[in-house]
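We were asked to recover a plausible sequence for a given structure. The inputs and outputs are reproduced exactly as logged, with field labels preserved.

PROBLEM: sequence recovery
POSITIONS: 739
GIVEN STRUCTURE:
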């Protein structure tokens, strides 16, 4: 029956993207009277603004306006996201400086160059205080989070008696792992064009959350929701940084209303290091107690993360630990310390990426301590259910991921001895780690419109963040309609379409596609109802399953001579389109099951024993993430995630000057993301799985899963190669040379 879903189709907009024809947020529209906004940032780490001298800026060519805390309109609310409680974003509402890089003024001028020049002339005087900018110096301030995961989860979890079980365990691992601040660094910068027409605001904004931005700007500026229109046809990467409505969006909207000019505001790469979130630094203590044969008896995972002084976001590193392995005794805690930094946010697999680095490193240490093979150790401790929630999994195909990944990689040929394999002067090592990420799903809407030429349009107010949503919406709609893929177009990225959730938490496919399926099925039923109804001679009284749709013509399977074109049918009914709108949402399975995707990573590295240089020579990932809608864009997501994980393992870290709180490597020259030369042969294995408990389409979602565990697999391979255990990411040559 399935003919389209599951194929590996080219990305719908792929040709447009590679030929440069796609218009991203800042390029979406041309306005004759466009003005440019450029933001000014605080250059101290803590304190307050004592004076602002904007005389020189106001004299500069092209100057239109400056907004500061002294003249900016008062806002009705200053939150960036419902997911980050207690926050009061710095939106020019007071003179307090919470951290270095905070926006303190917005200059508007006729051109980008003029706005940049005028912004450089703004002189700020400060009452300066000494900032606290290093998490490791603030651990005594760490507190229990007030509203962990927006109240959806508890910061602490336990079962059994972990302290006693650990104390009595035959084998003990007790180590601390640290992960650095990391920045998302999407290729497309954060950018917005805000246009105010006297009563309504239109935002062309690079966002992972059209509906979220609409709501936030509506609330902040006190404009009715239906008077805020958000458009965003393409996103050049977000990775979580574009899930919230950051200050520049609200400030651009504010400036558009004040100046009555459409404002274009594009953040610089440097500005994206201070005001669009990042992954928190973490300090994680892992304690594993096991029997001599490797069976876990106790797991304890204590995380300290940083947040800003003006709001709480907690990197939830221990959540995956609660459900990953079978153990009768467990304790997980999360603590958060407020320091003078920007606020962290969701960054690709927030929590799982940092936490599974620690857990999967500790599991590798346990494998060596017990002499059990690392894959075998994970099988010994395989969790058949979510033991913390005491719920069955909607589906779990992790055993097959281990087996297929290991077979493809050649894990059985690996010699367990450390520092024992060489290739010329280089040491060679192999390591593995598990991957997991929750399967999320939220309410979403979609509309399907069948046109008289036999084509169809599917619409949803979702966004394609590069994952292939245009393509998968078309595929699912075409399949449900019984139309060829080429006859279906997808439209998204507009708040006027049926509402869909944030494209975060890897939930877009699992949320939107069931709505697309339902809307397409409903539209098809309407079409067939019209065809078999009393007004149409040709197919009158036909049973729905006896009607075939091909080449824009409806005919009877049992009597092909009886037929009518969609065009004729609609013309006789005086219809220009047949339309259906549906919403789909999770049901009782959310309470009765635990839903996660799973995978296994295998990494091979070479290590130069003299220079400490690590190269990843092979990466293999095997994943089970429900039914795969498009095998080709799915594979691209897996590869992208694995490369993201490679960066986490080897290169990425944001460095802060502790005296000023200034980020010292706020550029792509100094913040190192992997380049092609760093990326080895990547093998992706898509292990078949369908999860119809989770949703009727069987789709779980990919996005964040494939980066989880990569850094641990690499760290474990580095240990196997060198005998040196690096417990502090990233694994850079200096740490190996000095170790
Ligand atoms: Mo993801 S960090 O929820 O975009």
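RECOVERED SEQUENCE:
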């Amino acid at each position: 029956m399935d003919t389209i879903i599951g194929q590996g189709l080219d990305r719908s907009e792929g040709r447009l993207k590679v030929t440069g024809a796609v218009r991203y947020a800042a390029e979406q529209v041309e306005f004759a009277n466009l003005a440019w906004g450029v933001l000014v940032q605080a250059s101290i780490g803590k304190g307050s603004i004592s004076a602002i001298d904007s005389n020189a800026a106001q004299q500069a060519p092209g100057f239109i306006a400056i907004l500061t805390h002294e003249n900016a309109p008062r806002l009705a609310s200053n939150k960036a996201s419902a997911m980050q409680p207690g926050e009061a974003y710095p939106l020019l509402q007071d003179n307090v400086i919470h951290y270095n890089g905070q926006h303190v003024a917005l200059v508007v001028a006729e051109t980008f160059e003029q706005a940049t020049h005028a912004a450089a002339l703004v002189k700020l005087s400060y009452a300066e205080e000494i900032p606290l900018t290093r998490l490791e110096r603030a651990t005594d301030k760490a507190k229990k989070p007030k509203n962990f995961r927006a109240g959806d989860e508890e910061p602490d979890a336990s079962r059994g008696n972990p302290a006693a079980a650990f104390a009595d365990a035959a084998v003990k691992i007790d180590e601390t792992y640290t992960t650095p601040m990391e920045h998302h660094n999407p290729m497309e910068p954060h950018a917005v064009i805000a246009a105010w027409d006297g009563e309504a605001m239109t935002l062309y904004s690079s966002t992972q959350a059209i509906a979220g931005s609409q709501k936030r700007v509506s609330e902040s500026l006190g404009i009715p929701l239906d008077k805020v229109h958000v458009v965003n046809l393409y996103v050049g990467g977000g990775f979580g940084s574009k899930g919230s409505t950051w200050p520049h969006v609200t400030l651009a909207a504010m400036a558009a209303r004040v100046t009555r000019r459409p404002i274009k505001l594009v953040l610089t790469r440097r500005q994206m290091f201070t005001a669009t979130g990042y992954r928190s630094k973490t300090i994680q203590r892992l304690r594993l107690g096991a029997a001599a044969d490797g069976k876990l008896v106790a797991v304890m995972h204590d995380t300290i993360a940083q947040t800003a002084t003006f709001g709480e976001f907690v990197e939830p590193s221990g959540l995956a630990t609660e459900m990953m392995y079978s153990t009768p005794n467990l304790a997980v805690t999360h603590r958060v310390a407020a320091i003078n930094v920007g606020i962290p946010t969701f960054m690709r697999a927030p929590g799982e990426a940092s936490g599974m680095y620690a857990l999967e490193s500790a599991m590798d240490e346990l494998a060596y301590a017990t002499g059990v093979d690392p894959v075998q150790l994970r099988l010994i401790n395989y969790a058949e259910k979510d033991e913390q929630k005491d719920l069955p999994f909607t589906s779990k195909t992790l055993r097959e991921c281990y087996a297929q990944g290991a077979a493809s990689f050649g894990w059985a040929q690996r010699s367990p001895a450390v520092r024992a394999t060489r290739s010329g002067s280089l040491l060679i090592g192999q390591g593995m780690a598990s991957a997991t990420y929750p399967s999320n799903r939220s309410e979403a809407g979609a509309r399907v419109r069948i046109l008289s030429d036999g084509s169809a349009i599917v619409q949803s107010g979702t966004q394609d963040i590069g994952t292939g949503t245009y393509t998968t919406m078309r595929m699912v709609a075409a399949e449900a309609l019984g139309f060829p893929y080429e006859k279906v177009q997808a439209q998204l990225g507009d708040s006027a379409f049926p509402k869909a959730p944030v494209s975060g938490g890897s939930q877009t496919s699992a949320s939107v596609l069931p709505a697309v399926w339902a809307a397409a099925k409903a539209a098809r039923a309407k079409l067939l109802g019209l065809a078999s109804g009393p007004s149409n001679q040709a197919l009158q009284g036909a049973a729905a399953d006896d009607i075939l749709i091909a080449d824009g013509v409806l005919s009877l399977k049992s009597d092909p001579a009886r037929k009518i074109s969609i065009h004729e049918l609609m013309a006789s009914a005086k219809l220009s389109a047949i339309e259906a709108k549906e919403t789909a949402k999770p049901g009782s399975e959310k309470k009765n099951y635990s839903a996660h995707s799973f995978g296994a990573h295998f990494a091979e590295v070479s290590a130069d024993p003299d220079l400490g240089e690590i190269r990843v020579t092979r990466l293999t990932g095997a994943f089970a993430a429900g039914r795969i809608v498009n095998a080709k864009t799915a594979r691209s997501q897996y590869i992208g995630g694995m490369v993201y994980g490679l960066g986490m393992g080897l290169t990425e870290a944001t460095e802060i000057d502790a005296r000023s709180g200034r980020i010292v490597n706020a550029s792509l020259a100094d913040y190192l993301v992997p380049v092609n030369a760093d990326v080895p042969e990547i093998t992706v294995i898509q292990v078949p799985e369908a999860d119809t408990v989770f949703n009727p389409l069987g789709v779980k979602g990919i996005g964040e899963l494939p980066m989880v565990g990569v850094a641990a697999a690499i760290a474990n391979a580095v240990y196997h190669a060198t005998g040196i255990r690096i417990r502090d990411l990233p694994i850079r040559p200096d740490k190996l040379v000095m170790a």
